[in-house]
Structure formats: structure tokens, C-alpha cells
Amino acid sequence: MWHLQTVYFKDSVAMELPGHPNGAGLTTVDEYARVVERKIDENETTAVPIIVGHSMGGAIAIEIALKKPELPGLVLVGTGARLRVLPDFLAMIKEDYDEAAKLIAAWSVSTKADPILVERTARDLMKVKPEVTLGDLTACDKFDRMERVGEITCRTLIVCGEDDRMTPKKYSEYLHEKIKGSELAIISGAGHGVMLEKPREFNRVLEEFFGSL
């Protein structure tokens, strides 16, 4: 998901979560957040990282930011303070994972996106076991920090594709309204997978934010 960013941003790290694609996944955002926190704490460098999270990763990032006000920066991409999931997605994963992956992939990009990107997204999702994907979406569906996101105090950038159907821009606008001093960037022509669909625009927005810290 992040290869167009890890190449561009020197020393950046794209963290693999449990079950993505190896091993067992977890069932709550809080459990995933604890894994990420441990990896941050185990890092051999003394620098506290800027955390960038997309979708469920954004929910994980919110959890960490609420516990670690010392973060130098936070980037929330295509995410929300609450992440409701369409029941059809959950049911289809149980019944026909191949078709579910295709449907989720189609919803994950703008309707203007190249069909090849949809196919690639579906293939990537199929690398993850169906029970892990089901657990992830269930974790997202249970996630709700609408009453607490206003407690985030670190510098925050919120990014959303204008055509995002999974986490519509009203989710990002809510985060922007609640997180004091946050910046909001809406990228046109992109959907939920904004970092893949519009990497140049996405990277430029992040680069400007990083330079301001």
C-alpha cells in the first residue's frame, strides 16, 4: 500500500500489522495500536516518529495519539473518528471472499481510477486471509472515538480523496473540526486509496506538512 511513499520519503517505514499477510490478525483497533506502540518503543533510535495511518491504520494512529501527546506529528488518511462498515461487506467475506475482495477494491478507489488499480487492490487484499479481513472490518465497525478525538494535541494533517466512498470526506471534515489546529487536504480525483491513486499530490501534501514541523 505504501511503496510509493517509502521510496519517496527517506527513512520511512511501512509497518506490517499482524496477519498482513502473515500470522493471525487481531480483533480490535486497541490491540493493533498496542502492537504498533511496542514496535515504536522497541525502535533503536531515540526519535519519536511521525505516524501516518490510513483507514483502520488511521484509527490505530488516533489511539496512539490519544496516549502519546508527545508525537511530533500525526497524519490521518481516509479515516474517521468512527468507522462504520457496510453489513454487505461483512456478509460477503463469509460467503465468497473472492467476490468480496473485488467489491471492496472497487469501493476503495475513485470511479475515475484505472481498472488495473482495482484489480491490483483486489489481488493485494486476497493475500490476507479472509478471517483477518473480517476481523479488521469488525474492529473498524466497533471503533468509536468521536467523543475523544478533540483531546489530540499534536500537530495533525488530515488527508482524504474527494471521491472516497469508504470514508467520505465528511469523516475528515469532522476530524478537522474537532482536532484543534489541524490541517485538512482534500485531493481531487482520488478515492479511498488516495496514496496509490494520486501519489504525487499525496506526497507533496505530506512533504509540506513535514517541512512545517
Describe this structure in words.
The chain has 213 residues and is an alpha/beta fold. It has one domain (44-212): Alpha/Beta hydrolase fold, catalytic domain (Rossmann fold, 3-Layer(aba) Sandwich). The protein has 10 helices and 4 strands; from the N terminus they run ααβαβααααβαβαα. The chain has a 4-stranded parallel sheet, sandwiched between helices. Strand 1 (51-54), helix 3 and strand 2 form a beta-alpha-beta unit. The longest helix is centred in the N-terminal third of the chain and has 14 residues, at 29-42. It is globular, with a radius of gyration of 16 Å. The two termini are 25 Å apart. The mean pLDDT is 94.
Features:
4-stranded parallel β-sheet, 48% helix, single chain, alpha/beta, Rossmann fold, 9% strand, 10 helices, 213 residues
List the helices and strands and how they pair.
Blueprint (H helix, E strand, L loop, with lengths): L2 H4 L22 H14 L8 E4 L1 H12 L6 E4 L9 H9 L1 H11 L7 H12 L3 H13 L13 E6 L7 H10 L4 E5 L6 H4 L1 H14 L1
Parallel strand pairs: 1-2, 2-3, 3-4
Helix pairs in contact: 2-3, 4-5, 4-7, 5-6
